[in-house]
Amino acid sequence: MIGIVDYGMGNLFSVSKALERLHADYLITSDKHKLLAADALILPGVGAFRDAMDQLPADTIQQFAASGKPLLGICLGMQLLFESSEENGFTKGLGLLPGSVRRFPGKTNDGTAYKVPHMGWNRLEFIQDSPLLTNLEEDYVYFVHSYFVSAENSPVTLAKTDYHEQVAAVVGRDHIFGMQFHPEKSSKLGMALLGNFLKIAAERKAVR
Amino acid sequence: MTLTKRIIPCLDVKDGRVVKGIQFVQLRDAGDPVELARFYDQQGADELVFLDISASVEGRKTMVEVVKAVASQLAIPFTVGGGINTLEDMKKILRAGADKVSLNTAAVENPGLIKQGADFFGSQCIVVAIDAKFDPDIDTWRVYTHGGRKATEKTVLDWAREAAELGAGEILLTSMDSDGEKNGFDLKLTKAVSEAVTIPVIASGGAGNAEHFAQAFEKGKADAALAASIFHYKETSVQEVKSYLREKGVTVR
């Protein structure tokens, strides 16, 4: 059973429908005990970082992460896994991955303005082996975000993309994973990435 | 930088059915939003826009069901516009599975709605649609509302800037002068708006062939381009437009 964390934000429906297309059992819930009992958790997210941290059952997610079961943050949900964000001033995150979230400056070093949010289909570049990327090929995925985690010098970056900055697109360490783009909206590669996460969840469950 | 230019088919929905002469004989049901969405997805559409043109409360309720059905079938993003007047309306549509909502008349009449929506859902969910028509008296484009029937006091460039400041994540810019003419997008308008704001601009109105899309991106500086009839009437396909763009050196998925 995959638990989808319901904290009043985020597009739960599109994530859950993607799981249905993959024939996965899931439960959308905010109930602490049900979340902790899940084989894996997905933390979706659309909206603002601070509001999300206010709404989030942070203790439960941290407790779940400590249990060693797989956790996947999507979009804002990925950003929440990090230590902090500068969105609406400094806000502390869940601190499950090292690094911080900052806003696209909207300007290159030579002063050329570019558009924020980073919105649309951009290409992934795989940079580290991970069970999440097994048997997949680099392709386009769908991004919508104004804040990002820099891929430069980040040990947890598994795949990156280039939008005037080196953007951490897939992150992961041990059993904690995140995707900055929307896999549930990213056509074939997006669905395959979710499929790999489900596989990881099933393998961990078999070992336990 | 590998961010691609987006091609976006637009579908008009009335009481749960896609309307406006759609010529898709190979589909089981040419008016079914899900079938059409799937068709465009397979063609390589980057996104879809559904414009709800229902005039009734019942029709609006049906739209929520359409959104759920599309979201359950489709792995590409889609925007819903038409008849979204309140934060509650936005919640219903986004919770049903839409990725973005598009605000037009309601935002002009109540600009605070943009900020409300952006604060609650994030800017990326809020598209502000602007219907623009050139006014020689003021030598710039004027904003129209109510489906293009009502002129306002706002100029397009000022309104686009204001909308962006209020938190709009994207501008869907329709040229009323070009719409339906198939002579190409209004490149002057598109470029002016695209340079006035730092958020993405979707060009709309006037697409007649693949070259028009290339112009919208190269000369109009658009980030995405939307079209309805040329895709519906199969005058060209998303695939054809994309292979043309690739030849021209425009990055597409």
From TrEMBL, chain A:
E.C. number(s) listed in UniProt: 4.3.2.10, 3.5.1.2
Glutamine amidotransferase domain: residues covered: 5-198
PROSITE patterns referenced in this protein's UniProt entry, alphabetically: GATASE_TYPE_1 (PS51273)
Compartment(s) where it occurs, according to its Swiss-Prot or TrEMBL record: Cytoplasm
Active-site residues (renumbered): C75, H182, E184
Domain of life: Bacteria
Predominant subcellular localization, coarse grouping: cytoplasm
PANTHER family: IMIDAZOLE GLYCEROL PHOSPHATE SYNTHASE SUBUNIT HISH (PTHR42701:SF1)
Record note on quaternary structure: Heterodimer of HisH and HisF.
Role: IGPS catalyzes the conversion of PRFAR and glutamine to IGP, AICAR and glutamate. The HisH subunit catalyzes the hydrolysis of glutamine to glutamate and ammonia as part of the synthesis of IGP and AICAR. The resulting ammonia molecule is channeled to the active site of HisF.
The protein, known as: Imidazole glycerol phosphate synthase subunit HisH
Classification of source organism: Bacteria, Bacillati, Bacillota, Bacilli, Bacillales
Gene symbol of the encoding locus: hisH
TrEMBL record, chain B:
Active site residues according to the UniProt entry: D12, D131
Presence of the UniProt keyword Cytoplasm in the record: yes
EC class (word): lyase
Entry keyword annotation includes Lyase: yes
This protein's UniProt keywords: Amino-acid biosynthesis, Cytoplasm, Histidine biosynthesis, Lyase
GO terms, molecular function: lyase activity
The protein's annotated pathway: Amino-acid biosynthesis; L-histidine biosynthesis; L-histidine from 5-phospho-alpha-D-ribose 1-diphosphate: step 5/9
InterPro entries to which the protein is assigned, alphabetical: Aldolase_TIM, His_biosynth, HisF, IGPS_HisA/HisF, RibuloseP-bd_barrel
Compartments, as annotated in UniProt: Cytoplasm
Protein function: IGPS catalyzes the conversion of PRFAR and glutamine to IGP, AICAR and glutamate. The HisF subunit catalyzes the cyclization activity that produces IGP and AICAR from PRFAR using the ammonia provided by the HisH subunit.
PANTHER family named among the record's database cross-references: IMIDAZOLE GLYCEROL PHOSPHATE SYNTHASE HISHF, IMIDAZOLE GLYCEROL PHOSPHATE SYNTHASE SUBUNIT HISF/H IGP SYNTHASE SUBUNIT HISF/H
Similarity section: Belongs to the HisA/HisF family.
Protein's UniProt name: Imidazole glycerol phosphate synthase subunit HisF
Organism: Neobacillus paridis
Gene designation per UniProt: hisF
